[in-house]
Structures are given as structure tokens and as C-alpha cells.
Amino acid sequence: MTVARMYLNVVKTRFRSVKELGDKTLNQLEEAQLHWAYNEDSNSIAVIVKHISGNMISRWTEFLTTDGEKATRNRDDEFTDSLQTKEEVMTVWEKGWQVFLDELHGLTEADLQEVVTIRGERHSVIDAIERQMSHYSQHVGQIVYIAKQIKGSEWQTLSIPKGQSQAFTESMLKNHQQ
To answer: How far apart (Å, rounded) are the C-alpha atoms in residues 13 and 9?
Structure first.
């Protein structure tokens, strides 16, 4: 397997993992919780979802052939809490991820050597992918953090539960020895 193929496989897996964290978080929340914000200068989860989706659709529609900042994108509107229902939030979430993952899965090893533009600035395809990995991971982390604060003791952990690290490690080592 070439390094380019390995890279594409790794980033696809990592992005699916980031999405899964968001999915599991959003599934724990009730409609009103999606709109909670710490203060008027903070973003609600619904707003963060709207922003991530807007970014994905703009950046990844015709990724290799057009500037990643589409004229049709209204980035400022992404920061208004206008999604009314949980269904709307989930639809926007899924639409952005669908556009992004479809384009990512369509990339070839040769595409990694290409250059794309974002707001007129040239980026290697690898740099553009890594830029989005950082951006999307940051925002999904915000979603998880906000949700944990909202849910409190009702939060269902997405990783190793507190106090169970050693048991988890031992289980993993045992599984890998077989």
C-alpha cells in the first residue's frame, strides 16, 4: 500500500470517528438543549452544527475545481440560531457530513498532489484536509463539552469511563495478544 493510499484511509477513518462523537452527543440531547448558550456571545450546539455544515458544503462542493469559499455561502448567517427543531439540526448536520464524506471518499492518490484554493489562498490538498480535520475536531469538541455541561450526571460517556482506564487497557492488551 502506498503512503498516499494509507493517508487517505487514515483520514477517512479519523473523520468518521469525529462524526461519530458528534452523532453520539447529539443523540443524547433534547431539542431545547441544542439551543442553550452560556451567554449571548457564546454559540449553542445548533449554531455550531449550522456552522460546521455550512463550512463543509462550501469547502467540499466541487472541492478540486472551485474555491472553497463559495459565493453562495452566508457564513455570518451560520452564527444565528435559526434552526427550530432537533430534526432540522440533525438534517443540517447530516447534509454537511454527506457532502464532505462523499467528496473525501472520491479523492484519489493523485488528487493529493493537487492544489486547491480557499478564499483565493492556495493549499495542497493534504493541507486542506488537515485544515478541516483541525476545524471539525475543534467544533465537535465544543459540542461534546457543551453537552456534558448541560447533561451533568445524565451524560453518557463517549470514551473510557472514569476509573476504568486500567481495566480497559488490560482488555485491549489481552485482545491484541490473541
So the answer is: 6
Beta-bridge partner residues of 122: 117
Helices of type H across 107-156:
125-151
Contacts of 2 (CB under 8 A, 6+ apart): 109
Kindly report whether the global pTM for this prediction surpasses the value 0.70: yes
Phi and psi, residue 32, nearest 5°: -65, -35
Phi-psi region of 152 (alpha: psi -120 to 50; beta: other; left: phi over 0): left
Element (H, E) at 117: strand 115-118
pLDDT tens-digit map of 108-159: 999 999 999 999 999 999 999 999 999 999 999 999 999 999 999 999 999 8
Which of 18, 5, 1, 12 is closest to 112 using CA atoms? 5
Domains and CATH numbers, the chain: 3-177 (1.20.120.450)
* Measured distance CA(62)–CA(108) in Å, rounded: 14
Distance CA 81, CA 36 (A): 10
The whole-angstrom separation of Cα 45 and Cα 142 is 8
Residue 19: strand, helix, or coil: helix
First to last CA, the chain: 25
